[in-house]
């Protein structure tokens, strides 16, 4: 019972962290404690903890070794150790630009969430609104943001507004579709129970529908974190930004500074990973009651 | 099982739920299906009535019409002088669905108080206070589990919580829709006597939907046998077994006779 594939009104989205968790589930299942209380051994617990790190370390080692073996030039692809040293020596630069990009991504993510919840509520309350909205949502979803980002720049000009529009647009649809799915996912028995005591629509919405939507919304949030960073970086490419990691990448490209390009990529990866971990951690606390959190 | 005339009059004057000529038609894939046809039924205050029948006989539909959850196509339901909707608005009903349907993010203690907290103040009667609800939980053996979440409880424990949630409303009418159908046989048997315990202490009127003959026989004051196509009442039987009912009664000839009669009715209505 994992949420690695989020059903979203006919659209299937692959959720990487959910998939990780599924692979992580070494037996036990969702039937509560495993047989005879023999929990995972200390060794398997340690292995479970270091396994994800092991994969990344192995990847970076291969990278490093390949450069030596195939004699790849630093301007083509620097070594991971060189990149990490470079980031460390230029901490202020990366911290400043990371903050800019993070702020843009966070704002876009939040605006998208707020707008999507308003839309999802309207859609959950009316099948007509849902039917009228879904095709438009799918169009936004399938149109590559790279294609319409220049148009956004024409409409909203250089600066933060354009960047936020890009970021919001890419984050909006996962929140919208998962929001509707979530709001509709309430156990019909609970709705009937609420009706049997004459609960108001508002009570049903606030006390049953919204909490029921949380698991889907968390899945959407994990997808949207990555998308928000894409939106922010892309927005910086197109909107004449003077800071941010996207700007740092395009500057590095224009001036042929491979180290700064890779340094920005590393920092972006780190930002995305950290945000995802934060959301997953929050999810574990908030959704402790949900089947997706059981091992 | 005979009832004297004076008792009949007394019983008639104490009718709590009155179902008169109720019909319900659904439209299903373009066809009109008669779920219920011209059903009339009076239920006395404090009575335990079972609706017994095969699937498709409209017993759950009748339960929901009594509870004001479905509107009848024709006919009326009167509850204590009100129509079913007004009765629902004044929180006259405690519903126990087939699935426990506990709120997964609420603890057991919060769950059994959840319905009392909805449409708060709507009840025209006293709802149970905190200590009374705790006492109910103790009665059903859930005393130490108030802080547990539903997923930490067994199916039987969840269904007991669902019973307590209904009784906690202090509602005069309890509507139960095959509440034990999903449980294993042993748990189910325990649940029946637990329910009888809770019911005898509450004085509530129970309408209990089931497709189990022995369940209807051991629980009820009266069993209403229903038939399908269209859904209708085929027969009614007062159950003369003594109260309180005990598991030992299920081994006695009187019980077997009740079961035999109900079975015969079910068969007759099925082949008719």
What does this structure look like?
The complex is a heterodimer of chains A (295) and B (272). With 295 residues, chain A is mostly helical. Chain A is built from eleven helices and two strands, in the order E-E-H-H-H-H-H-H-H-H-H-H-H. In chain A, helix 4 packs across helix 7. Chain A is flat. The N and C termini of chain A lie close together (10 Å). The N terminus of chain A is likely disordered. Chain B is of the alpha/beta class and 272 residues long. Chain B folds into two domains: 153 residues, 3-Layer(aba) Sandwich (Rossmann fold); 79 residues, no CATH class. Chain B has nine helices and ten strands. The interface between A and B is medium-sized, with 22 and 25 residues.
Which key phrases capture this entry?
heterodimer, A: 295 residues, mainly alpha, MetI-like fold, two-stranded antiparallel ribbon, 2 strands, 75% helix, 3% strand, flat, disordered N terminus, B: 272 residues, alpha/beta, Rossmann fold, 2 domains, 6-stranded mixed sheet, 4-stranded antiparallel sheet, 10 strands, 25% strand, globular
Sum this structure up briefly.
The complex is a heterodimer of chains A (295) and B (272). Chain A is mainly α. Chain A is built from eleven helices and two strands.
Question: What secondary-structure arrangement, pairings included, does this model have?
Answer:
The complex is a heterodimer of chains A (295) and B (272).
Chain A: E1 5-8, E2 11-14, H1 16-24, H2 42-70, H3 80-89, H4 91-125, H5 127-142, H6 145-156, H7 160-183, H8 188-196, H9 201-238, H10 245-254, H11 258-286
Antiparallel strand pairs in A: 1-2
Chain B: H1 5-13, E1 15-28, E2 31-44, E3 48-52, H2 59-66, E4 74-79, E5 82-83, H3 84-89, E6 93-96, H4 108-117, H5 130-139, H6 155-168, E7 173-177, H7 185-202, E8 205-210, H8 213-219, E9 222-227, E10 232-238, H9 253-271
Helix pairs in contact in B: 4-6, 5-6, 6-7, 8-9
């Amino acid at each position: 019972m994992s949420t690695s594939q989020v059903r979203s009104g006919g659209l299937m989205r692959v959720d990487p962290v959910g998939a990780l968790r599924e692979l992580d589930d070494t037996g036990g299942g969702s039937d509560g404690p495993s047989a005879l209380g023999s929990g995972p051994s200390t060794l398997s617990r340690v292995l479970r903890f270091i396994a994800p790190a092991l994969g990344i370390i192995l990847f970076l080692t291969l990278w490093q070794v390949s450069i030596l073996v195939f004699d790849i030039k630093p301007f083509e692809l620097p070594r991971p150790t060189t990149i990490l040293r470079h980031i460390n020596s230029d901490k202020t630069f990366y911290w400043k630009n990371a903050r800019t990009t993070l702020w843009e991504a966070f704002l876009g993510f939040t605006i998208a969430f707020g707008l999507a919840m308003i839309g999802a509520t309207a859609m959950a309350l009316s099948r007509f609104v849902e039917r009228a909205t879904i095709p438009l949502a799918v169009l936004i979803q399938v149109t590559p943001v790279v294609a319409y980002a220049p148009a956004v720049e024409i409409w909203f000009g250089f600066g933060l507004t354009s960047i936020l529009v890009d970021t919001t647009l890419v984050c909006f649809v996962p929140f919208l579709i998962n929001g509707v799915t979530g709001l509709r996912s309430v156990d019909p028995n609970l709705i009937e129970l609420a009706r049997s005591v004459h609960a108001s629509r508002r009570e049903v919405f606030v006390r049953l529908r919204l909490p029921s939507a949380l698991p889907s919304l968390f899945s959407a949030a994990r997808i949207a974190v990555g998308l928000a960073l894409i939106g922010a970086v892309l927005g910086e490419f197109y909107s004449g930004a003077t800071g941010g990691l996207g700007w740092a990448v395009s500057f590095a490209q224009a001036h042929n500074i491979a180290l700064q390009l890779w340094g920005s990529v590393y920092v972006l990866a780190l930002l995305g990973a950290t945000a995802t971990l934060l959301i997953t951690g929050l999810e574990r606390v908030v959704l402790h009651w949900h089947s997706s959190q059981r091992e | 099982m005979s009832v004297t005339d004076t008792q009949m009059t007394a019983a008639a004057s104490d009718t709590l739920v009155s179902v008169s000529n109720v019909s319900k038609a659904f439209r299903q894939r373009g066809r009109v299906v008669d779920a219920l046809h011209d059903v009339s039924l009076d239920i006395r205050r404090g009575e335990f009535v079972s609706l017994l029948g095969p699937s498709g006989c409209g017993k759950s539909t009748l339960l929901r019409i009594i509870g004001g959850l479905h509107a009848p196509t024709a006919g009326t339901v009167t509850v204590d002088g009100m129509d079913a909707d007004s009765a629902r608005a004044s929180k006259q009903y405690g519903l126990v669905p087939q699935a426990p349907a506990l709120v997964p993010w609420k603890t057991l203690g919060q769950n059994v108080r959840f319905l009392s907290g909805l449409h708060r103040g709507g009840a025209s009667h006293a709802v149970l206070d905190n200590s009374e609800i705790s006492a109910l939980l103790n009665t059903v053996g859930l005393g130490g589990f108030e802080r547990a979440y539903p997923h930490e409880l067994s199916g039987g424990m969840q269904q007991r919580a669902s019973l307590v949630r209904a009784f906690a409303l202090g509602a005069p009418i309890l509507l139960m829709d095959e509440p034990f159908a999903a449980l294993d046989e042993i748990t189910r048997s325990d649940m029946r006597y637990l329910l009888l315990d809770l019911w005898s202490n509450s004085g509530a009127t129970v309408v209990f939907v089931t497709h189990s003959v022995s369940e209807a026989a051991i629980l009820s004051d009266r069993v209403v046998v229903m038939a399908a196509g269209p859904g209708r009442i085929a027969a009614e039987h007062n159950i003369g077994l003594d109260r309180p009912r005990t598991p030992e009664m299920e081994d006695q000839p009187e019980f077997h006779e009740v079961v035999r009669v109900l079975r015969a009715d079910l068969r007759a209505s099925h082949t008719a």
